[in-house]
C-alpha cells in the first residue's frame, strides 16, 4: 500500500466515523447544532477528498472545543484516537518532504500497535485480570453491560477466565503481526471482531469505526518496514 | 487547550486496567425545595433485555448509549474531583430529559435532586453506598429550558 493510498483510506474511513458521530449528536436535545453540523460537513469533505487538509485542521479545532466543553473526551479512547488520527493525517498532508509525511503516518501506526499492546500489558500485570475476576466485575457491577440479562455472564467464571486470557494474549501478541502481511490481515480481522463484540456487549460502537479507520496506516507501515 | 489535546497526541492506552467502584445515577422529584428526598429512581436504567438485532443496530446508531457513557465518565469526575462543572452537566442533562418529555413529572413536582451510588466488590461481596447527593434544582417546564 502506498503512502498516498493509506492516507486516503484513513481519511475516508475516519470521515465516515466522524459523520456517524456527528449525526448521533445532532439527534440529541442538548446538542450545539452549529458545531456538529459543521463537523458533519467537514467529515463528508474528508470522505470526498475535497480540501481534506483544511477539513482535518478544522475538525481538530472543533475536537479541541468539544474536549474543553466536556472537560475531557465525550467518548473516552475513541475520541482520543480520532484526534490523534486528525493530527497525523493533517501532518501527512501538509508536510513538504516525503520523509516527514511518512513519519507522521508511521507515528499513527505505532500508536495503533501500542493501543493493543499497552492495553494487554496493563491487564496482564493485574492479578485480578489473570484470575478472571476483573472481567467478572465488568459484568457483575460495572455500568457497561447494555442489558441486565448480560450480567448473568458473571455467573460463568470459567468462561470469563478463558475470555480474559484470550483478550490479554491477543492484545500482547498484536505487534508481532507486523512481521508478516498475511498474519497482519488475520489479526486486524480478529481485532475488528473484538471491537464489534465490545460494541454489542458494552455499547462502545464508536471504537469500532475509529479503530478500523486507522488500520490502513498499519498496512502501509508493514509494507514500508518489512 | 493543550491540556486536553496532549493526552490524545501522547495516549496511555490503559483500557480497563482496573475495575473500580461503578457509579449509578438516581433522581428524585420534590414538591418543595426543603422536602427530604425519599422516592429515588434510577435515571435511564439499563433494559432487562436487548435483542441481537437491536444490538447490531447500535453499531451504527447509539446516541443514547453514548450519552450514557458520557454521563458515566462525568459522574466519575464528580466523585473523584468534586467537579462543580460535572455536577452542573449532569443536572443539565437530567433537566433536558424532563424538558423533552422523556421523563414525566407530576404537576405538583417543582424540583429535582440527583445522587450517585457507587457499587464495588469488597471481600467478594458487592456493596452499594451513596457517595454524592446534589443540591436541589428547578424542574424545567415540559416545553424546554434547563437548570
Descriptive overview:
In chain A, helix 1 packs antiparallel against helix 2 and helix 1 packs across helix 4. By secondary structure, chain A is mainly α. Chain B is of the alpha+beta class. Chain B has one domain. In chain B, strands 1, 2, 3, 4 and 5 form a five-stranded antiparallel sheet that branches. The chains are: A mainly alpha (226), B alpha+beta (147). At the A-B interface, helix 1, helix 3, helix 4, helix 5 and helix 7 of A face helix 1, strand 1, helix 2, helix 3 and helix 4 of B.
Mean pLDDT of chain B: 91
Q: Into which percent range does the helicity of residues of chain A fall?
A: over 70%
Specify the oligomeric state: heterodimer
The end-to-end span of chain B amounts to: 27 Å
Helix content of chain B: 25-40%
Low-confidence stretches of chain B: none
Q: Largest interface by residue count?
A: A-B, 54 and 55 residues
Radius of gyration of chain B: 17 Å
- Please state the CA-atom Rg of chain A, rounded to the nearest Å: 19 Å
Portion of residues in beta strands of chain B equals: 15-25%
Overall 3D geometry of chain A?
Answer: globular
Order of H and E elements of chain A? HHHHHHHHHH
Give the percentage of residues in beta strands of chain A: under 5%
Report the average pLDDT across residues of chain A: 96
Order of helices and strands of chain B: HEEHHHEEE
- Overall outline of chain B: globular
| Total strands of chain A | 0
Number of helices of chain B: 4
